[in-house]
Amino acid sequence: MNAVLEQPMILVVDDEVHLRNSLSSILNIHGYTSSTADSGETALEVLQGRHFELILLDLCMPGVDGHQVMRWIADHQLDTCIVVVSGDVSIDSAISALRHGACDYLKKPYETEELLLKIENALSRRRLEKEHRAINLQLKASERWYRYMVNSSPDFIYTLDADGVCTFCNDRAQSLLGYSREAIIGRHFSSFIHTEDLEAARYVIRERRAGDRAASNVEIRIPHGTNSTLLTLEFNSFGIYEESDTDAPPKYIGTYGVAKDVTEKKKTTELIMYQAYHDQLTGLGNRKLFKDHLELGIAQARRYQHKLALMFLDLDRFKVVNDTLGHVVGDLLLIEVAARLRNCLREGDTLARQGGDEFTLLLPQINHRDNAICAAEKIIKEFGVPFQIDGHELYVPMSIGIALYPDHGDSMDTLIKNADIAMYDSKAKGRNRYQMYASSMSISFDERFSLEIQMHKALEKEEFLVVYQPQINMLTGKISGMEALVRWASPLRGYMAPMEFIPLAEETGLIIPIGEFVLKSVFQQAKLWKQVGLLPQRIAVNISSRHLEQDGFVDFITCLLQEYDLSGSLFEIEITENTLLNDGDHIIEKLRTLSGMGIKIALDDFGTGYSSLGYLKKFPIDTIKIDQSFMPRFAGDSDNESIVTAICTLAQGLHIKLIAEGVEKADQYQLLHTLNCNEAQGFLFCKPLASQDITDLLIKDPPLGACWV
Ligand code: C2E
Ligand code: CA
Ligand code: CA
After folding, report:
1. Which ligand is closest in space to the CA of residue 470?
2. CB atoms within 10 A of CB 243
3. What percent of the chain has pLDDT over 70?
4. In DSSP terms, which residues pair with 465 in a beta bridge?
5. Domain shared by 571 and 642, yes or no
6. How far is the CA of 467 from the centre of ligand 3 (A)?
């Protein structure tokens, strides 16, 4: 017997006791378990309480007969099988019994084998039925499961027929694409695709290949069905083929595909790409983008034999704006600068920000150098108009360097380098101008390099020396102080003035060891003068802003004061207005510390920078040095006279000492005297002199300034 239906329970329903018992005992002998009911009524009762696999049912019984029992079973949908056992042989009865659900009919009297055969047949039919039912249930469940999986997939799944018409798609069509399934099925795939992607779509969406060779990860854009979004989907598709029994190649019957929504991912990638190639502040291309375009531009210029221009543009006064008005205004200015530059472009030009206030411009196709000059002139003109930023009127001119392909180089690096050199040259020649590269500039570039190397060596070989220029008290005419000025006695270049090497020293940072050398020499000399009783009231030393900004600057001075046992009040440091503009708070702290040590602070070249009255109040300034360019050059030079007059009035109002520089003529001295300027310095009294000559002068101590009043 089947393991699933082990010990099937059989109910024997018969009103004849002998038959009932004989049936029951036959069943028991053959391994079946059975119960009996002696009437239709008892059968109904029993059936309400237990489940039977099979019922052997007598049709003719008094009271509730077999037909009624069967009707009852049908009404109550009992899951059992009925074999009718009856003496009634009429065909009507048999048909009626079978119609009401009996699965077989056994005529009394019956042979035991016949009975057992019928029972076994009925039970095995039931077994089969049950198995079928179970399989059916399983199938339904798995189909539901697959449908569920397909429909709840985050991806769009579809099949197309061999013509490219959609034959199936999952529910994702609605939520992802904005189309109902009905709107997609039956339509050709191409009606959904963005026109520019149709070619790619023909290749991937209707992919004919199968397996590993199938198209994968191809991005196709699809306009959303109901809104204006343009979706990007990544398609993977495979051909579907009908297997054939013959050797004939399998027949293509359609495509199966899966498409993933990569719209967001794509946007993120595009953003990352954008950021990698663009300057965030101005939205212009960056250095990387520029190099890419330049490389391409050079390749094309080479191929089609035309010229190309590369410009290096640098704002002339950006740092001052940034330092005085703050980074927010600085940033706004850069944005405006970028916008103004954009207005000067033609289609196809590439403008990029290299960083800071440096920009590069690529004109990829020009016929003549004049085209580049024309563009540069246009930019210079545009930048002649001041910018209105945050209530400030800012005049920030441009210096431009131009290099042409192939005239000034045929490689990317050479062109960039030469445009840069030309830009520096244009700055050196006075700013707010453009300069076309010339090979002579490169010599000066190499020259800068060799000068730098020689300066390094000069420090080791102690080729620098310090000269002193006396400062005269205008009341007494006597020497009140000295300004220490550096010189370079170069065996290769001769005796050099600071303007020939200080700018490069500032740029390269060599100004720091040079400044330290000057300070040491000054302290040594002061000690010597002190020892012979010739110490002047004050020695002024020029300090570069780069040096002052150094962390160890104050400590360096402190050590010197201790080492040479000198008082701070003997010294004055001269700084320029622009020093105050850099890193304001940090500098103010240092100046206060130095001031606290008795050291005086002088503002050098006053009037040429950007400092305002506010600066004079904010910083501990003891002295103002009127720049020599303001000394009236001729009798009646009223412009300069009024500037000098204004500075004198200002300084006196603030109780700040005034020193006039570059005093060469007696009438200049007289004017300063009238204006009650405190001190004067210039060739009129004395040129800068070597320390030994100053010692001689100090010994004589003549009234250098008395005779011109
Ligand atoms: P500065 O600080 O304005 O120095 C005054 C400059 O004016 C000196 O030039 C001096 O020789 C010159 N001078 C003095 N009297 C007259 C005059 O009557 N007429 C004219 N035309 N010029 C006069 P120098 O020595 O060539 O120095 C030039 C600049 O180099 C200095 O200008 C200063 O900015 C810088 N410098 C000089 N020595 C040092 C130094 O040791 N360290 C630093 N950082 N800079 C220095
Ligand atoms: Ca000075
Ligand atoms: Ca000066």
Report:
1. 1
2. 6
3. 95
4. 487
5. yes
6. 15
pLDDT of res. 88? 63
Between the CA of 20 and the centroid of ligand 1 the distance, in Å, is 139
Cβ 97 vs Cβ 84: under 8 Å: yes
Q: Which residues of 471-485 are buried (b: 16+ CB within 10 A; e: fewer)?
A: bbbbeebebbbbbbb
Ligand 3 center from residue 576 Cα (angstroms): 8
329 and 362 within one domain: yes
**Full domain range(s) for residue 336:** 279-437
Q: 433-455, pLDDT tens digit by residue?
A: 899 998 777 767 778 888 899 99
CB distance 373 to 321 below 8 Å: no
What spacing in Å lies between the alpha carbon of 605 and ligand 3's midpoint?
4
Q: What is the DSSP string of 432-497?
A: SSEEE--HHHHHHHHHHHHHHHHHHHHHHTT-EEEEEEEEEETTT-SEEEEEEEEEEEETTTEEE-
Report the CATH number that the domain containing residue 204 is assigned in CATH: 3.30.450.20
Tell me, yes or no, whether 499 and 630 share the same domain.
yes
In a domain, 168, yes or no: yes
| Residues near ion ligand 3 (Cβ under 5 Å) | 604-605, 661
Please give the residue that has the higher pLDDT: either 134 or 483.
Answer: 483
Nearest protein Cα to ligand 1, atom 25: 485
Q: Where is the domain boundary, 119, 151, 183?
A: 151
Q: Separation of 624 CA from ligand 3 center, angstroms?
A: 10
The burial class, CB within 10 Å (0-12 / 13-18 / 19+), for 331 is middle
Which of 115, 136, 151 is the C-terminal boundary of a domain? 151
Does residue 613 or residue 426 have the better pLDDT?
426
Whole-number Å distance between alpha carbons of 398 and 273:
30
Confirm whether 274 is domain-assigned: no
Ligand 1 contacts (CB < 6 A) are 469, 485-486, 497-499, 502, 511, 515, 518, 542, 544, 574, 604-605, 628, 661-664, 681-683, 688
Are 698 and 549 within one domain?
yes
Q: What is the pLDDT of residues 234-283, one digit of tens each?
A: 988 888 888 777 777 788 888 888 999 999 998 998 888 899 999 999 99
Testing ligand 1's pocket by substitution, the residue of 495, 525, 542 carrying the most ligand atoms inside 8 A of its CB is: 542
Count: domains in the chain: 4
Determine the residue of 539, 629, 661 to mutate for testing ligand 1's pocket, defined as the one with the most ligand atoms within 8 A of the Cβ atom. Answer: 661
- The chain-wide mean pLDDT, for the chain, equals 89
> Ligand 2 mean position to 679 CA, how many Å?
14
Q: Do residues 216 and 297 share a domain?
A: no
